[in-house]
Amino acid sequence: MSSAARKKSALAITATALIALAAPLAAGTPASAASVSTWDKVAQCEASGNWQINTGNGYYGGLQISMSTWRAFGGTQYAAYPHHATKQQQILTGEKILAGQGPGAWPSCGRASGLGSDHADPYPAAPTYPSPSSLPAGTLVKSPNGPEVKVMISGAGIPVAASDVAPDHYDLSKIVLIDSAAFNGLPSAPPAGTVVHDQAGGNARYVVIDGAAIRIGGEDWTAGGYNARPDMGVPTAWLQGAAQRTLSNGRVVMNQSGADNNRYVMVNGAALHISASEWTANGYDQRSLMGVPGTWLASAVSKQIANGTVVKDVSGQDPTVFVMAGGKAVSLTYADFTGLSYDKRPLEGVPSEWLTGAKAKAAPADHTMLLSPANNTVWEVVAGKKRAMTADEFGEGKRSFHDVVSVPTAFADSLPTV
């Protein structure tokens, strides 16, 4: 823009500034606008792209705005001089000048750079989305930046698989967009104690605890008070997966109906009894206690703790580490602990009295498979004795090496051979 042209433009701008700013609002029509890339072209033409330039010619910044124009169009809300303002602030003021004076406010560079033909909003306001907590249960939600869909259940976002849409009768035309961070931050399971069923139908009911879906037996439905809780439909695929999960290790549980006052701690799917003397002494009273269906609890109590689980006395009074094999707690020396790679597995604290009983068992349960590292023989336990297994007993449809428990050679040797 030439000096003479700038002066002529500046005189016109000063006289009509307030009228020009008000006109678009009074007329009810959108103001002129241009994309950031177009404003970059104006700045390149006017100031070689330097948004902080001040050559002393009376025009400042990337858009070479005079002080009278800067003041008239509200630029001083950002900075005293145009070149002291940020690029965005200069463009926002340039937008007002463009709306009031048109591209001619930059006689040489305006139209040549695309002002007047580019009507994009340079800094569109970020869209606002509803808070997930404000949405009713059953609302389908997604992020604007991805294809994944979730359904809101008690504040959690449960993933909806493609296979769920038709049988579960989810209407994808009613999806609500929520902020990406909020979407990604949704809990993936409903709160503990939530009662759910398959959205596709069926009479089975479950209670959600630690992301696992625990089946509620018919006799537990009323006795445990589950019939008084909201019953939420959840995606079929999610429920099938949740029904296969186990409660978190260390979770303390009891019979929801109160018919059994005993307390148990969960370790790898088994419920281990906590004696009254250990309840406080070992800190179980400080953990969250969760009621569970009685029929499910009875099944968990009858389970042997998973083979290969590494345990020790939760009280810390006995430092010995054990590996579980067919319900028998087999002691490990430090050499065994590291040599058999049990130091790579989680070490679970278990109730002292329960561990005493597991140690006292004479032998693992029948059909437990043990590996003797001394000669790489796999032994099957039969009636408290061991028999050597052959390679043809393993394979598809047969026994699996994944079920074999490595035990110290001394323990394997202690069992008589069949």
Determine the strand fraction and express it as a percent band: 15-25%
Q: Residue-averaged pLDDT, rounded?
A: 91
Global geometry: elongated
Terminal CA distance: 103 Å
Low-confidence stretches: 1-31
Total strand segments: 22
Rounded to the nearest angstrom, the radius of gyration is 36 Å
Mind explaining what this structure looks like?
The chain has 418 residues and is an alpha+beta fold. The chain has helices spanning 3-27, 36-47, 67-72, 87-101, 110-113, 180-184, 218-223, 236-242, 276-281, 294-302, 334-339, 352-360, 409-414, and strands at residues 59-60, 65-66, 140-142, 149-153, 156-159, 176-177, 194-198, 206-209, 212-215, 231-234, 252-255, 263-267, 270-274, 289-292, 310-313, 321-325, 328-332, 347-350, 369-372, 377-382, 385-388, 404-406. A 4-stranded mixed sheet has the order 5-4-3-6, with no helix packed on it. A 4-stranded mixed sheet has the order 9-8-7-10, with helices on one face. Strands 13-12-11-14 form a 4-stranded mixed sheet, with helices on both faces. β11 (252-255) and β12 form a beta hairpin. α1 (3-27) packs across α4 (87-101). It starts with a helix and ends with a helix. Mean pLDDT is 91; it is low at 1-31.
